[in-house]
Amino acid sequence: MKIKFLFYMFLFGIISVSAYSQNVKLININQLNERIKNGKDSTYVVNFWATWCAPCIKELPHFEKLAADHKTEKLAVLLVSLDFKSKLESNVVPFVKRKHLKNEVFLLNESSPQEFIDRIDPSWSGSIPATLFIKNDKRKFVESEFTYEQLLTEYKKL
């Protein structure tokens, strides 16, 4: 009986970990645009970040707080990692787990940085952190780090 219990606990642990690792999905620009276009939310805050970017890591809790504070609104916060695809399992998934990120997390699966940068916003130099705000047909792109107050202000302007 004890062995059966330990087996089930082990199995539950594996399922939990594998289900959690599913929270970080590979996505390309077309899929990201489709997610936004066909999503049920009216406002999207899309943050581009990386596990190696100190300002990105510093501001991630602000995006978590924004989503939590406005959970009754039709807001989707999408966190798009620009880490290399090869770092998904070794860096990004453990980082997301360690930071307890609740928002949707993606890893951008594109081979040509300049091509996807231009498709996000032609004015983007490629530096991160960067955030795209979308509400209906209105888009605003900001290429800088946010405090929570600045993020909230930009969100409320939409």
Automatic annotation (TrEMBL):
GO molecular function: antioxidant activity; oxidoreductase activity
Location of the Thioredoxin domain: 15-158
Coiled-coil ranges from the UniProt annotation: none
Listed InterPro entries: AhpC/TSA, Thioredoxin-like_sf, Thioredoxin_domain, Thioredoxin_ResA/DsbE_sf
Record protein name field: Thiol-disulfide oxidoreductase ResA
Organism, as annotated: Flavobacterium anhuiense
